[in-house]
Amino acid sequence: MIPQSLRALLDETDGQRECEWAGRRVWLAREPWGELAVCLQGAQVLHFLPAPDPAQAEGSRPTSEATPLSSASVTTRTNASDAARDSGATLSPGEGEEALVPGGWLWVTPTPQALPGAVRGGIPLCWPWFADERGADESPDRSGPMHGPARKAQWRLEAVDEHEGGVELHLSPSERLHSQLIPRAVIQANARRLHVELITEHVGETPIKLSGALHSYLAVLDSFACRAEGLSGARYLDKLAGFAERDQQGELAVRGGLDRIYHSNAEVILDDGQRRLRIARQGSDSAVVWHPGETPPDDTSPAAARRFLCVESANTRLDPVWLVPGAQHLLGTTLSLEDVS
Fold first, then answer.
1. Rounded to an integer, what distance in angstroms lies between the CA atom of residue 205 and that of residue 133?
2. 180 near 138, Cβ under 8 Å?
3. In the prediction, which pLDDT does 60 show?
4. Which residues does the chain have with pLDDT short of 50?
5. C-alpha to C-alpha distances, 96 to 112, 299, 300, nearest whole angstrom
6. According to the 3-state scheme, what is the secondary structure of 59-109?
7. Is residue 145 within 8 Å of residue 239, measured between CB atoms?
């Protein structure tokens, strides 16, 4: 579920290209396997839409801008664009905001902040700390930016590899973000799944307490009519109740605002009544489930906010990572549709 202006750029894309959206450089792909949009501010995935027929799409030869499209490729691309709008008409925008277009697995606000602010939505990279867990914050009074500097930094695209009917991107920050830690991001997309990795390498001399998150904004029909399955019985911290410790009774039914950190490495199934999206996590024993409720942030209207739910792969106060010199840590998330066959 993305703004109309980003949808228009994707519709104009044939293969892969870089262009500008909302004052930012974005990398776009519209291929037989599906669609992908990545913002180079923050190495942030903004949009992912797999082709409607995975078996056919994965069997198609990957194309590039220099390769003419076959009739099958044209059909696949047309079907993918149709799928981007198959869940209903364009959502009516509120005053001063852009229309949101249904389709895709991720949500992006229709009113993104101007630079140097970050874009709310997609999969922001929160690094090398998440929220108030500022063990890696090097500022004198621990007053660095919320969720760390990675999400607002400029990243460069190091490589684009096509394989297995999909694509793999490698990105790194354009400038050094930490004196001892170096991050890189890997994004893999094909007709069956989206996979994002945030890899941290320790090149310094002293151990560092690391936290972080892949802050996934997942597109849903109605935030307050969703179920997050797979967390039953898990212990969690309720941030809206002063980090009170509680146990999840049954499956999580979302009926309003919530901000919880679940101590669990289990896969989560997000069911919004239209699709069942599987969220697997790597290098994470914290699953963060968040929605602002009826009082969303300033860059999002209440109506637009009713179309997302965050289910995040994270390292939090429940599972911080002590990274020693020479070591690496991988935080990952994988999105796929539940196999109901």
1. 21
2. no
3. 43
4. 54-88
5. 12, 11, 11
6. HCCCCCCCCCCCHHHHHHHHHHHHHCCCCCCCECCCCCCCCEECCCCECEC
7. no
Domain borders along the chain are: 102-337
- Indicate left, alpha or beta for 192 from its phi (over 0: left) and psi (-120 to 50: alpha): alpha
pLDDT tens digit sequence for 114-137: 999 999 999 999 999 998 888 899
Q: Where are the beta strands (DSSP E) in 205-327?
A: 208-210, 212-214, 217-219, 226-229, 235-238, 244-247, 252-254, 258-263, 268-271, 276-282, 286-291, 308-315, 321-323
For residue 203, how many other CB atoms are within 10 A of its CB? 11
Q: What is the pLDDT at residue 339?
A: 75
Q: Is residue 175 within 8 Å of residue 154, measured between CB atoms?
A: yes
Report which of 133, 80, 136, 141 is spatially closest to residue 105, judged by C-alpha positions. 80
Q: How many CA atoms lie within 13 A of 129 on its CB side?
A: 19
**Cα–Cα distance between 329 and 322 in angstroms, integer?**
9
pLDDT value, residue 53: 62
Tell me if the pTM is above 0.85.
Answer: yes
- pLDDT for 141 equals 87
Topology at the third CATH level for domain 102-337: Beta-galactosidase; Chain A, domain 5 (2.70.98)
- Written as six digits, the tokens of 110 are 């229709």
**What local confidence, expressed as pLDDT, does residue 61 receive?**
35
| Token output for 125 | 């990279």
Residues 3, 24: Cα–Cα separation, whole Å: 14
